[in-house]
Specification:
Blueprint (H helix, E strand, L loop, with lengths): L6 H4 L3 H21 L8 H18 L4 H6 L1 H18 L1 E3 L2 E7 L2 E3 L1 H19 L12 H15 L4 H17 L4 H22 L2 H11 L10 H12 L11 H4 L11 H34 L3 H25 L17 H27 L4
Antiparallel strand pairs: 1-2, 2-3
């Protein structure tokens, strides 16, 4: 078979890549329908972005472990400076200041911070002696590394991205072996602080998102409109759906953001419960492969890096699905590989590229005798 299939092709993780290709292609079909049966403006750019970032991921695969560890702190510092630049001269859109215009490129630095926070914490804990994980020096520096970008992102304001950065950081801390009592204590403190944060830390529109989540029927034509229409679209699909390109909620513009945050509702109306189940199973295959990569790693840095990237993608998937079904407040988290958006595609393909890179490290470790 080696004479038929080149080694470079045969050693690719096709068990993850093939489901990923199916998911992206399915997403393009949903975006085609969301545009009223046209490739423009969503489906074609969706496929183009995937192709571009797949190329980026294929380049990332070639990075060696020492180089990636060396770049952790410079990458973090660079993205942090970009977040500061957003505050100083960022482009404003939809009431938020989240983007930097770099000629033809529009960059959202907060998206880059999601994988970068995983990278820098994996480096920090990989270099931390095992006996120090129960010491304050395992907690306070990391609190600063997580808190600084979260504060800058909250100023934009972008609550969903700030929560994603914090979630990735906390999971890395847990996987690094910090004492469980610290997390329980933080959870108890969070429960006490939450009411104060709601009244004094959140903006009015963010408060409405929380109250709408608790009672969307209270204002079905106002703040509850998004989630009510999403539930209608998902429920009207039944088991098999209305059929490809037959969704009335998206085609008649009842469903807001049908091509981005609520793309799962668009899909569910046309493909039904069966289509939703297929999407969830494919995500499960991809995430399970990522966790297997983390488990197969022989050194602490690789294990934390891979597990953190899986966590980042899981946060996207879980929050988006809960959001469109009314199980979480609407926070503007797109569905990976299906929603239209360059920033989301960039972040999730960086995660995929990192996992493929760690998978290569795992494959080559026995050959070169690398140990953690």
């Amino acid at each position: 078979m080696n004479s038929i299939i080149p080694n470079a092709v045969g050693r690719q993780p096709w068990g993850m890549l093939l489901p990923l290709f199916v998911l992206v292609g399915f997403g393009a079909m949903v975006l085609y329908s969301a545009a009223g049966g046209h490739w423009q403006p969503y489906a074609s750019s969706h496929l183009l972005r995937f192709a571009i970032f797949l190329g980026v991921a294929s380049i990332m695969v070639r990075f060696n472990r020492d180089f990636v560890m060396f770049m952790a702190y410079p990458a973090y510092a660079g993205v942090l400076l970009l977040l500061v630049a957003v505050e100083a001269m960022g482009a404003i859109g939809g009431g938020s200041q989240r983007w930097l215009s770099l000629g033809p490129l529009v960059l959202q630095p907060s998206e880059l911070m999601k994988p970068v926070i995983v990278l820098v914490l994996a480096k920090f804990y990989a270099n931390l002696p095992a006996g120090m994980t129960r010491d304050w020096r395992a907690l306070l520096p990391v609190g600063g590394l997580i808190g600084a970008p979260m504060a800058l992102v909250m100023l934009q304001p972008d609550l969903g991205t700030a929560l994603a950065i914090g979630f990735g950081g906390v999971v890395l801390m847990f996987l690094a072996g910090l004492p469980l009592r610290w997390f329980l204590g933080a959870g108890a403190a969070g429960a006490v602080i939450a009411p104060l944060a709601f009244f004094f830390g959140l903006k009015a529109y963010q408060q409405r998102r929380v109250t709408t989540f608790l009672d969307p029927e209270a204002d079905p034509l106002g703040s509850g409109y998004h989630i009510m229409q999403s539930k209608i679209a998902i429920g009207s699909g039944g088991f098999w759906g209305k059929g490809f390109n037959e969704g009335s909620q998206s085609h008649l513009n009842y469903l807001p953001e049908a091509h981005t945050d609520f793309v799962f509702a668009t899909m569910s109306e046309e493909w039904g419960f069966f289509g939703g189940l297929v999407v969830i199973v494919i995500f499960g295959i991809i995430l399970r492969w990522g966790m297997n990569v983390a488990r197969a790693s022989n050194d602490r840095f690789s294990k934390l890096l891979a597990a953190g990237m899986v966590t980042t993608m899981f946060f996207y998937v879980a929050i988006n699905l809960m959001m469109v079904m009314g199980l979480a407040p609407v926070v503007g988290i797109p569905l990976p590989f299906m929603s239209h958006g360059g920033s989301s595609m960039m972040t999730n393909m960086i995660c995929i590229g990192t996992l493929m890179m760690v998978n290569r490290w795992n494959r080559e470790q026995p050959r070169y005798g690398i140990s953690g």
